[in-house]
Amino acid sequence: MPTTRYVPDTFEQECIRLLFQWLSEHGFQNPDLPPIYYSLETPPVFEKISHDWQQFFTDDILWEALNSDNNSTIETLTDSQKSLIKELNDNVLPRGNQERKILVGRIVSIDTLLGRYYADTPHIVLYAQGITAYAKRLNVPTAILRAVVLVHEIGHWISHAVPDSRGETWETADFTNESAALCEMWAQLFTYWVAEENGDFKIAFEALNNHQADEYHTYNHVTHHDKTTMLYVLTYWHRCFPHLLNPPPPAEEVINQLIPETPLRIARNIYEDCFNKDILKRKLIESAPTKERITTIFDMW
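Now predict its structure.
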């Protein structure tokens, strides 16, 4: 089935306008949106199954069994219903609550059911069939759920590719190799900010988030911080000092001069990765006010 170029509707344009307004207020540049496409193909998560994948969302009994706290409900399903579940779960019937939760979370992941951001050649694809099917299951308007998905994917693009005041972006190699939890935190955080501005959008966002995997909930750890703080973290952590947790004292002094204490502390709480001296050296030399001093510090190591 075809994939066509997609133009955001009026409501989606207003959501995007909010995102760009916040970015502009914090010094980010204002590039054109990446290409957005509307795909009528089967969502990737269901591509290789033989069953009618729509049954996963339309079959009330199957859905309730997967989301029930009662472990025995899965045993009451028909052989056909069990077969569909097993086909989606590596031929294993998930009988425990946690196993079923993981399965549902994996299937309703935005990137495999509803839409996807492609970082290597920045563009966004919205999966029309997945959005329509899941909107009916959640009992929310399809257009509103589509807006949530689009804002989420634009959130990925913002965190990765929208230049900040220095023209810096998150290096594509670093972005694509980053943990899903951290990348989804940023995409969900931008979506959460929009949700706080619109009631219908918020209802759909929360309904969707209710069944999603753990990585789609990491944004909750930072929602109490304001936009200024979090956008500073995005600018001076992922784009300036990736992989930095415990620098030696000379570098620590420079970092403390360049980054206010609160964003740096937040970034270190978010980021748990190994220290990479080469990346730090390159970024510090690019951004530090006294290049000779930075070079001297690294020569001491």
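The longest helix spans residues 142-161.
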